Amino acid sequence: MLQVADNSSPAEAFAAARAALEALPSSRRVTADEAEAIYTMVHSAIVQGQHDAALRYLALLTFLKPTQPRYLSALALTYKLLERFQEALNVYSFLALLEPDELLHPLAVAECHLRLQQALQARALLAFVIDSSEGVAGSEKLHVRAQALLLLSTRGAVPA
Q: Both 16 and 69 in a single domain?
């Protein structure tokens, strides 16, 4: 069972939870090469438009490697391709916890909120992304996309 001190910070509590997930026996059932072979099948299925098959592979892969951002990103993308936006939002939110400095995750969460007709939540996240990416080298495209989505959301448009 996960033990977290009462006086621990949220970051410490999350780090403990992540370590507990990574210590699960399922995380050691496949080698890195085997996991990559499964991921190759995921990629092939997505490219061929076989999103349901990709989802099955990803269910296995994220069970075996529950904190691997690359696999979780593929899972979230597959949910989006299947128009299962609530599930995609949940995975992108988890990714935002795993990689708090990566602004693509809150942007993706905002996009899911927009697809779910949750404009207020989306606007709050978009404002966060815009503020956080202002003047950050390498974040120009992300910044512009967040601005465009914010503008669209104020007009009632939903991105495709």
A: yes
